[in-house]
Records
---
Amino acid sequence: MRAFARLLDRLSLTQGRNAKLTLVRDFLRATPDPDRGWALAALTGELSFAAAKPAAIRAAIETRVDPLLFRWSYDFVGDLAETVALVWPPAPGANREPELSEVVDGLRGAQRSQAPRMIEGWLDALDADGRWALLKLLTGGLRVGLSSRLAKQAAAELGGRKVAEIEEVWHALDPPYEDLFAWLEDRADKPSSAAPGRFRPVMLAQALDADVDLGRLDPGDYAAEWKWDGVRVQAVSERGQRRLWSRTGEDVSAAFPDVVAALDFFEGAIDGELLVMREGRAGPFGDLQQRLNRKTSDARLMAAHPAGIRAYDLLVDGQEDVRHLPFRERRARLEALVSDVRTPRIDLSPILPFATWAELAALRADPPDGDPAQAEGLMLKRWDSIYEAGRPRGPWFKWKRDPRLIDAVLMYAQRGHGKRSSFYSDYTFGVWREDEAGEPSLTPVGKAYFGFTDEELKALDRFVRDHTTDRFGPVRQVRADRDFGLVLEVAFEGLQRSTRHKSGVAMRFPRINRIRWDKPAREADELATLEAMLAPR
Amino acid sequence: MIRPESLICPRPAGLYCPPGDFYIDPVRPVARAVITHGHSDHARAGHESVAATPETLAIMAARYGEGFAGSSRPLAYGETIARDGVEVTLVPAGHVLGSAQVVVRRKGLTIAVSGDYKRRRDPTCPAFEPAPCDVFITEATFGLPVFRHPDDGGEVRKLLRSVAQFPERTHVVGAYALGKAQRLIALLREAGWDRPIYVHGAFERLNALYARFGVDLGPLAPATSEATRDTFAGQIVIAPPGALADRWARRFADPVSAFASGWMRVRARARQRGVELPLIISDHADWDELTATLAELAPGEVWITHGREEALARWAELSGLSARALAMVGYEEED
């Protein structure tokens, strides 16, 4: 438990991806089975107990600490689990610290009524960090800023493997994953992945550099499709097992029972785009967002935002794995499969006819009305490409639309982390709108922390330090008014309505495209310009 | 016995002793001051006369120049000066080099003023000595039960483990210039770290002063910008807490920002400062030390100068001690 607690403690304050990988990989290397397996299960969200309710933990602490002292402590710390971990009084003569596996075994075997006493015994035996880790484990959701994929990546690095190899077998495995570690450490063969309904690691596209790539590619070798603005999913229906997987292998079936129910027409695995679909038309990304990141879905939400799949590839046809076949053949099989379907929840992503790159470029620049107008750009797939996990160079390209641009004024800057901890590198920018008094004032519309060179970062940092008007912890407010301010040309991929932002709009992938040292702040864009972009193109 | 308030009473400038006509740690210039320790919120320049330990006087001279007061009276630990029927003795407080409690006696009444103190071992200064007293005037910087500082050896091992785990990065540890920086260096030496420790220029004078008073800090090197980034990879650099957010820190390759402070016990505090590696090392008594000291001394009355007074007063009340919060202003919460 101590090593796991240390790991969570460090992860919770570490920002860098590489540093997180190092922390998890070193932990998995140094910790024996089965503790490391239970830890991996906890980090990937596969382990959850409903053993301890916050109210029960609060009750336990109030028998040990004066309620007034506890309340003052909670006010100061602001987080219940952390407060309890810190104020829990040392218990003389407590048992030795439990290992993670003892906690898991104990809770799995426990009668519900025994759980509180067991938990109190562990809290007595652990130190403050251990108590914090235990309480996070018990109350669900570690929230230490580590994605499930990154945890799997760290495990893969342990054995010098690719993360896709782990994803391929992951859903056939059960914690504490001793067979997985045995394979990663070359002590056993790769675990079997034959479970029906499982996830297959996805094939990804490279970004197209049009100036370089098009000149050496033959348009006759490639199929073109719209790049739909939804979420990539894999829909699997095998021997009665029907699942919907995200592109990183997260099971998202529970949030989309309407889509899963519609998978009864086939046997196999389809690759496609998850979209909100109304009478064959794709809704904007914001519609789909209403349904993402939910554990369940209610009838009202499903009726208002019906989801479906726009299919573009076939990985398994019946019992046959077709990933080794060329795209041309997979596509033909997909068309045969989907063309017979009666459900409005599945349709086919059309192949776009074109003869020359110039013709395709024109289509990309000016897509026809309807769904294509909302697409993020184009996908290019070699007709002869096999379906290969990862991001191989050459067979598939994504050719996004040119980003939207807007001139905004820098309003706040926040210090970065790690290499950037001495730089103000995260920028909040705003555009003009009329305030209640009818005066133009800036309203924040987004935040960006990349898109600039190291030299530009230095210059931006200097500007922030020289023009600070206020400070809030790590954030500085900079001078930004009609007569003075720094204009940033911001590029972004799309715009959505947002009730969480004061301006009412939220950008996707905003980044600093150019610093407009030359442009007066008063000439930056107005909110109305952004609002006009909200209408479908 | 005389009333305690007639011997020591809180005034806006600090704790005042009317019969002896002196202040303890006054926050503005006064005629006569007794100074508990050299931190700038307690030891200010501009008093007419100052009594303090020789170490504290040296620290004040290093910080403010030789003319920091009209006159100064060195008072060694255990030595007593008596005037107008008031006896003043300085007793080790264990906070930083030269730190002292001020024990004031008159007509059979003893009041001990703790100043800032801690109870655990510190290789850079003598340990706190409990002084029997009728009234104990204590600080309460960490006067909440959430503050239980772990063993400092464990925190130093945490730092060394991270250095071993990330040998390509520079570990930059924020630490206050007086006391914490030198204690951290001494603890690193005890843990076997014998490589040069790189220090920010702001520490040089105080490090030299500690060495003069016999505190061995081992090989130190300036963290100058002339050195290349490679010089600092895998090294430990100690700097004032604000320096990491400063342009100064750009000389280091991919720094791990650490901070040695009792406040690091609370994660939100670490997150707020962008600290990646919090080291819970404090020069103040934690909750257990504060309460254990009150229980050990069992004074007739406890007065609490600054910090989280209400919580410590609550504990004293629950433990049957008479306690009173003075809510003194002007003392910072740096650690």
Note: The first strand of chain A starts at residue 206 and ends at 207.
---
Amino acid sequence: MSDISPARAFRPAATEAPWARITLTLAVVAILAVLLFAPLVTVFYEALREGVGASLATLANPESQSAIWLTLFVAAFAVPLNAVFGVAAAWLITKYSFRGKAVLITLIDIPFSVSPVVAGLCIVLTFGANSWVGSWLVAQGLPVVFAVPGIVMASMFVTFPFVARELIPVMVEQGRAAEEAALTLGASGWRVFFTVTLPNIRWALLYGVLLCNARAMGEFGAVAVVSGKIRGLTATMPITIEMLYNEYSSVAAFTLAAVLALLALVTLALKSLLEWRYADQLAATHRH
Amino acid sequence: MLTTIKLAGETLAQGVKIADLTDGRVTITTGAARFTGWPVRRFTRSILAAVVAGILALGAPHGAQAQTLLNVSYDPTRELYEDIDKAFADYWVAQGNAAPEIQASHGGSGAQARAVIEGLDAQVVTLALAADIDKIAKEGKLPTDWQSKLPHNSSPYTSTIVFLVRHGNPKAIKDWGDLVKDGVEVITPNPKTSGGARWNYLAAWAWAEKNGQDPQAFVKSLYEHVPVLDKGARDATTTFTQREIGDVLLAWENEAYLAQKELGADAYDIVVPSISVLAEPPVAVVDANIHDDAQRKLADAYLNFLYTPEAQAIIFKDFYRGWDTSKADPADVARFPKLELVDIAHFGGWAKVQKEQFADGGVFDQIYTAK
């Protein structure tokens, strides 16, 4: 007994030696600094290399402005639609039992596993001028591919699972007891949804919507295939950034990249602000 | 059947419908009480209708009006066509027409051709290689003899391959032979993936032929001096300028000048070798995408305008080799020294070159060993 000190014997399993904790923390910070922070700072540095005036001048360019508006517009379309879809899908999957549920979950996950380029090509092949659907649409004067609807479609495809994937675990955890209680008290389906389900899932929903929004604004691969890259018309911010970069317009490219990064940072800041403001409610619903 | 209605704000009520009001609201009874409000189905339906209307409004054709024109072009032509479009708009208005709206799209030449085949509504294509427009013609979107419709093989401008070296040319690189000297590192992209890199390769080949060297042995030793083989021309430029690898970048003349202008004239010099290749980026009207006579007139006028002395002056200014120097700034013309140029016909055409040199198992595969 005398050669084992009590402290050593009762060391909690989850406590590491100080050197291990410091090493791990430093490693994480170093990796974050090199992989995330440094490139982000470089974007802003490159954008401002020729001064704030030069950067602002590139933003005043109608082409950049139209790219910013188009990106916001696409997100404004894709995100609410995907939020509605995500809630509906999560509701269906967690509140009901039915045959083929596993297949449905797999289908929802497809955009996660399929490369965005493939997604874009699928849209081009299905709705492009050489398909019968596409040629009919073009004949009606409603081209989908190489026009804004195709870009919205591609963004929606890629961001499809974000909301549903955030909601399903939360809703599974919460079970359906509360909804069943509401129903036995005579509430209608809509009322149950708005007064019982929605308040319970709002943090997960918000988180899913923010992720969905960030991805919808930043999506490049799928959109690049369907956009047609018409300046001022079908070029979103990521597409315009690539075009400008390829044309040696570094300041313009990095300025637009900085704006896109800022939009993402605002999204994240918004999320953190809400989390901080409603920390107690968050803790109550086990959602971080 | 139960009916759900929406009362003030978020409140919902459900009950048996007992009356339809003239303004669309309904009255329901839950047994204990009566409520009047908007039926929810109507509410959701109006949202759906708004969404559908929005999608339809977005899909409204942008290119249907007669006075718009979409020019689908390749990567570094933005400045050229920005200037051309302005000049053309003035010219077109001076001819007594309404101001045209010229739209532009830029991307890799092959990818752009693909997009036009898949339905990108381009009335005019201005691509890097005739082969790319041939692919569009093969789909029946324009006649296969398109290249004979405009002067100079439908190429209003040409370009060639030159050397971009570090300021002061510290390795004293003057011609292709200097690229294989000891200690010289050459930056050029992979000819299997980059169109420009194929021209680089062929230009080196042509120099060796002319100087009595075995071309295959020469390009083999040239690629032994290539430290990294990038995917495309822009990546190679980044390797040379940002990562500062290599002593010489083999580049399109227009891109070399553009890079020099954008990245600093005091950092790089341009060296023109004794012999290089003649690339003829062609232009054509895509007949299948012409929607009416007014648009055809506009498209034809646009391409013909490229051959006018005014447009040729802009072409010289934006670093391409034009044909007509009559109105060009002499300083812009003087930038391009005369050199011996060989075109693709010298090598037997792209089909033959592609098969012999760059296809799997071709000459390039035999001479190049990855480092």
Note: The first helix of chain A runs from residue 6 to 9.
